[in-house]
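Annex B. Sample input.
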Amino acid sequence: MMTIGIIGNGKSANRYHLPFLMQRKDKIKVKTIVTNNLENKTWERIDGIHYTDKIEELYNNPEIDLVVICLRSDMHYKYAKEVLEHGKNCLVEKPFVETLEEAQELFRLAKEKGLIVQPYHNRRFDSDFLTTMKVIESGKLGEILEIESNYDYYRAEVPENVKEYDGKQANTFLYGHGTHVLDQIISRYGNPDKVHYDVRQLLGTNRMNDYYDMDLFYERENGKSLKVSLKGSYFRIKPRASFIVYGTKGCFIKETEDRQEEHLKLFYMPDNADFGIDLPKHYGTLIYYDEKGNYHEEKVISEKGDYGRVYDDLYEAIKNGKEKTIKDEEIICQIKILEEGSKYLK
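Annex B, continued. Sample output.
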């Protein structure tokens, strides 16, 4: 068994971690949850888990293999370092940390102690992303020329209620949500050769970051380049397509995003057989010309997403010594881009 402790007992722990951990009781045990408010009844307690406000009980428990940090973004570095210093593996909610220096320090410390530290990049296992990558890998689109990935909301009240930017990069829209789409692309294509940034506060100078549009360019040996556009906004009442891919032979359009979050918000949990599963109306559209020049337009059945695969991979790395799926160099690349993008905020 891999035994886990969690720091934080809010939405992150209860919505995005515990439902998937409870599915894996055959190999993972959640032993302790640390919370600074034991009286808070917002989230129903789970039988068999010890809830405490004394973090030392977690740090000093020799049974705990992995500590999961589900705290505010600007607290990630401090607690990740403490966890590692107490000799435990560490999983950190996104965004991992605020600066490149902090990321490098945590990876150095983990290596020194023979431990694992990594962010919880669950969106690598989103259905829309997995489906889009499967279409690309099928070769039906030919050589891929352009990928567009959108992460849109209509939550105007959020930026409207933030009257002044607090200067904390980790709390920006770019770090909080751009990190997802950026990680997806880096996980498949690696470090881009060039990045163009358009990171803004649409409501004006010194307001909340509520918009980003980043173009990543990957140069190829044949002189061509792949352009990947990552876009997000708080003011899209009708969201753009989740993914659009253009190749030399056709295109693929996936209008709707992964449905796991939608179901979790409704408290429709992963133990339901149809949890997170796309219906036919959600399927993406593939349009292409085949080798004989025949035109095709067809629906693509969506791949199954599963945030819990992050824990499956960590189990294999911690208990069986397998290589981490979410690699240090990928996170370093991501933090560099996020940190550089934040320089455009005014």
